Known about the structure:
Low-confidence stretches: none
Helix content: over 70%
Structural class: mainly alpha
Radius of gyration: 21 Å
Distance between the termini: 71 Å
Largest sheet: none
Shape: elongated
Order of helices and strands: HHHHH
Strand content: under 5%
Number of strands: 0
Amino acid sequence: MSQDPNQVTYSLLSLHLSHRTKQLTDYISRALNLESHLPNSTKRYSLLLTRLGEDDLARSTYLQSRTEYVRRKIRAMQHPGAYGSNDVDGFVEAVAWLIVRVIKNSGVVYRDTFSESKMASNFFEWVKEQVEGNCPHIY
């Protein structure tokens, strides 16, 4: 008994399409990760991922890239005690200013890009992680 040629063609096409969709999703999420500091790019790549049914991936990629950005910026700051400087207050103020600025700017982009209300809770969780993760000894 032989299979229907249309069924075989459909199976092969479906397999090929799912593989290509995965490649495209990976490519777009990498691009979103690299360009998350650009609001228009964030919107464009997030919309493409949403069309591919990967809205969770779009949100998590955006927020993770913003987390990495904050960590890179804090590491790049001159820490108190480095080069004989002992300005702890200035350092704390700079870190606090950086975190608040990134949260504020990320919030504007997040709100414009991800409009569903269920997505807002993910952003609030991320904000909490940023404050607690970068200031663990406060609590």
